[in-house]
Amino acid sequence: MQTKFRTGTAHLFIPGPTNVPADVQRAMIVPMQDHRAPDFADLLGPVLDGLKPVFGTRGGRIALFPGSGTAAWEAAITNTLCPGDKVLMARHGQFSDLWAQMAQALGLRVEAIDVAWGAPCPVTEIARRLGADRMGEIRAVFVTHNETATGVTSDVAGVRHALDSCFHDALLFVDGVSSIGSIPFEMDAWGVDLAIAGSQKGLMCPAGLGILAASPRALDAMATSTMPRSFLDLRAMLGAHDAGSFCFTPPAQLLHGLRAALARLRAEGLDAVYARHHRLATGIRAGIGALGLQTVAEHPLFASDTVTAIRTPQDVDAREVIAIARDRYNTHFGAGLGPLAGRAFRIGHLGDLNEGMCLTALGIAELSLKAAGARVDLGAGLAAAQAVFAAQPLAPALSIAAE
């Protein structure tokens, strides 16, 4: 098979995996090491400790599972719940729907709240259903903090307030796969019991680690959980972490990369990381609006700062826009998922990203839309984004101490 020759850099603007910074790449170029040796704890310990402020927790425990965020989804369920337990879940996008499908496959009774794709988790309806649950049948509430398919961020603190207002004892599960490390996440302050992330998005590493943070309440729930588990046994993994290793062979190179990525987040400062993502997302959204296009997110108040899903005009197939960007311009955008297939494409703007990269994304999107038949004015989106970036101060350069 002949490989097509391309010059320059491939531009990756999917919402994950994201770009891996050069220093993180270099950190992973290390010899294989003995993960049972005493000094392996010198690598693992700082990674576990460094993840805590990113999750916004002091009292939670962090566990790392080889896999993706989906593995951490399953670990959260199987270690704290029992077959037949009733759970409350909102479905408002591809990933919230997949999580509900997993819960059903694992034997949970899912009470689903179906919401339009483009809307956030319905806090008021959750509060109503919790208030009506007089017998306390609902054992957990599941929230997708940032729905990657639609570019919508939900109010986790509002869901916690609903639980507290109803004096309800359900556990709060939160999928933070495309939010943690990029937008504010406050596990302790929001009363989150199980928070889920992956290594390949805001944490700027290759895919391969599912990350699960468990509150003291979640750890207590392990004592009564009767779901079968083996590879994803949280109690066993936490015990192995306490001893400085894993239950089985870990992806050690990924841990080196994650340690370097956490050093980047510390050097920039989490508040600056969140402000940067907001500034870049504001520029992207301004550019899309200037092109006369609509986002899937129904209102700017809950538009995501990590991914923007863009509706194409009715006579333009989003799949063609994506193919033109890929084949002509060596640029990759995210596809529309589920009912959005062919009707929307996505620009991921999270992780190791700056203004120039966002302007590249908009410029290629303009060219690709035009080539696919959309009536857009070339340069209009770029000008709108440039106006946003020019009006806000530049981020300071990073200075990262060697590990």
How would you explain this protein's 3D organization?
The relative contact order is 0.17. The protein has two domains: 22-266, Aspartate Aminotransferase, domain 2, CATH 3.40.640.10; 269-391, Aspartate Aminotransferase, domain 1 (Alpha-Beta Complex). By secondary structure, it is α/β, with parallel strands linked by helices. The protein is 39% helix and 17% strand. The chain contains 13 helices and 14 strands. It has a seven-stranded mixed beta sheet with strand order 2-10-9-8-5-3-4, sandwiched between helices. Strands 1-13-14-12-11 form a five-stranded mixed beta sheet, with helices on both faces. It has a two-stranded antiparallel ribbon with strand order 6-7.
Radius of gyration: 21 Å
* Low-confidence residue ranges: none
Portion in beta strands: 15-25%
N-to-C series of helices and strands:
EHHEHEHEHEEEHEEEHHHHEEHEEHH
Number of helical runs? 13
Q: What count of domains describes the coordinates?
A: 2
Q: Percent helix among the residues?
A: 25-40%
What CATH architecture of the largest domain do you see? 3-Layer(aba) Sandwich
Structural class: alpha/beta
In CATH, what is the homologous superfamily of the largest domain? Type I PLP-dependent aspartate aminotransferase-like (Major domain)
CATH T-level topology of the largest domain: Aspartate Aminotransferase, domain 2
Number of strands: 14
Given this structure, which CATH class of the largest domain is correct?
Alpha Beta
Could you report the average pLDDT, rounded to the nearest whole number? 96
How far apart are the first and last residues' alpha carbons, in Å? 42 Å
Strand sequence of the main sheet, in spatial order? 2-10-9-8-5-3-4
Q: Biggest β-sheet: count, sense, barrel?
A: 7 strands, mixed
